[in-house]
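ingest -> validate -> predict -> emit
validate: passed (alphabet ok, no gaps, 115 aa)
predict: started
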Amino acid sequence: QVQLVESGGGLVQAGGSLRLSCAASGIIFNLYAMAWYRQAPGKQRELVARITSGGSTNYADSVKGRFTISRDNAKNKVYLQMNSLKPEDTAVYYCNAYYPGSPYWGQGTPVTVSS
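emit:
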């Protein structure tokens, strides 16, 4: 019933931009904090950005000033605008929805940044 579907990943050159989208269904979207995580091959999954139901945000130090998370409650979507991309941003990016007692995950969308 709960579904998170990411889109927007792809291959870009260093310095370029991408916007990731996550469409949620099966949840009362405006109650959930939303987040983007990423996992590179051989690495642990890490939090990239988070936005609360009230719109407060926080970011990993590695992406501050380059990435922006936002949400559109009317569309049940969360976005990650990624600018000034670096090769070290290469990873599979996952959408996450959290409300006490229920974390949900999307299937992931790959992002590859070439130098």
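The two ends are 40 Å apart (CA to CA).
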